[in-house]
Amino acid sequence: MATGGLKKECLYKILVIGELGTGKTSIIKRYVHQFFSQHYRATIGVDFALKVINWDPNTIIRLQLWDIAGQERFGNMTRVYYKEAVGAFIVFDVTRAATFEAVVKWKQDLDAKVQLADGSPIPCVLLANKCDQQKEGVVNNANKMNEYCEEHKFTAWFETSAKENINIEEAAKTLVKQILNNDMTNDNGRSINKDNSKFPLDGHLEDIAEKRICNC
């Protein structure tokens, strides 16, 4: 049993966005449940998953992962979905260059609709997914990818594969570390122990999301 007082518990809202069919749901299922399937249906609206991490002996982190449907694109609903997020993954499919070309639009939309308390962009990690398959486009050049991520202010980028479980844990750790660093100055973390409450989601937002969840 733990001694020396209560552990610090933080709940963070993380967005997972990108074009339709890039593997967002597969990445979340692999990360949260260590499960992979070839047969997910397309997410409609938004889906949720919760990942609990024993970060260190004194800290428990709960990640509320919001799986935003690719077909939501950049509509008005995304502003509601993005509310209170403190980090994000943008996912593209390395076998379809067009999904990479769309990344900059997703990043611009994200930065326009949600910011940290000091007005700066929330941390965002770029996932080059399906790296177990034949890659096409810029993703074949690591130097160009590094330049791209620096230009568009991504925290980092990783080649990932939900099927083969490649780099998903590493990408998540990188994002969480950046969120924790931001907490030191911006107080974005929501401490559950302070008031025994969960993440302060807007009630209207929860109503919308519950109606639009797809269990795929």
TrEMBL record:
Cellular localization per UniProt: Membrane
SMART domains attached to this UniProt entry: RAB, RAN, RAS, RHO
Keyword Transport: no
PROSITE patterns listed in its UniProt record: RAB, RAS
Membrane topology according to the record: Lipid-anchor
Principal subcellular localization: membrane
Domain of life, source organism: Eukaryota
GO CC list: late endosome; lysosome; membrane; phagocytic vesicle; trans-Golgi network
Biological process annotations from GO: endosome to lysosome transport; phagosome-lysosome fusion
Record-linked InterPro entries: P-loop_NTPase, Rab29/Rab38/Rab32, Small_GTP-bd, Small_GTPase
GO MF, one annotated term: GTP binding
Keywords from the named record: GTP-binding, Lipoprotein, Membrane, Nucleotide-binding, Prenylation
Function: The small GTPases Rab are key regulators in vesicle trafficking.
NCBIfam families xref list: small_GTP
PANTHER family: RAB FAMILY, RAS-RELATED PROTEIN RAB
Family affiliation: Belongs to the small GTPase superfamily. Rab family.
Protein name: Ras-related protein Rab
Organism of origin: Rhodnius neglectus
